[in-house]
Amino acid sequence: MSAVPNESIGPCLADGAVVGPSAAEALLKGIIDEYRRPLHRFLTRLLLGQQDLAEDLVQETFLRAWRNAQTLAADPSKIAPWLYTVARHVAIDAMRARQARPPEVSLPDLNRVPTTDDEMDRVVSVQAVRSALGKISPEHRAVLIEMYYRGASVAEAAVRLGIPEGTVKSRAYYAVRALHAAIGSTESS
User: Fold this and answer.
1) What are the beta bridge partners of residue 12?
2) How far apart are CA 54 and CA 60, in angstroms?
3) Whether 143 contacts 97, CB under 8 Å
4) What GO molecular function annotation could you give as one example from this UniProt entry (predicted)?
5) pLDDT, tens digit, 9 for 90 and up, residues 22-47
6) CATH number of the structural domain 119-184
7) What global pTM score does this model have?
8) In the chain, where the domains are located
9) Burial readout 114-148 (b: 16 or more C-beta within 10 A, e: otherwise)
10) CATH classification code of 6-100
C-alpha cells in the first residue's frame, strides 16, 4: 500500500493516519465491483479454463490498478481498456513463467512406499510363507527347504533328497508356483 502516497488516498492527520475514504478509494471500489466478474471470465478464457489462476491474475490486475489509481482517475473512459490490457499482459507473463520452469511433479505417497527395514512386514512375510509351506505337497516342500532355506545347489539338493537333478529343477519350479498360489489364498483369508 505504500506505492501510492497518503495524499492521494485521502486526508491525513499529523501522525499519517488516513481519515475517511477518498475519491481514489471510491474509484477503486467501483472498478472492482464493476470489473471483477468480467475480468475473471476474460482471464479464464485466456487461460483455457484455469479458474484458480484466473482468480489470482484478477487480483494482480486490481493491485496494478490500485498502484495506478491517479492515472485511472484522470480519465475514467480509459479504465476498461487499461484493465483488459493489463489483465492480458499479466496472463501472458504467468503462462511464460509456467513454461520457463520445469513441470511440477507429484511426490509419491510415502505411506505406501515399502521400507526394507520394517520388522513387522518381515514377520508377516515369514508367517505367510510358513503357513503356505504346510499347504503344498511334501515333495515340493522338501525341494524348497533344501534350495532356499539351506542354500543347497541343484546338485547338492539332488544328493540329499536322493532324486535326479532334473527332478529337483522341475519340482523347484512347480513348488515356487504352488507356494505363490498358497500364499495368495492365505492372504485372502
Assistant:
1) 18
2) 10
3) no
4) sigma factor activity
5) 787 888 999 999 999 999 999 999 98
6) 1.10.10.10
7) 0.45
8) 6-100, 119-184
9) eeeeeeeeeeeeeebbeebbeebeeebbbbbbbbe
10) 1.10.1740
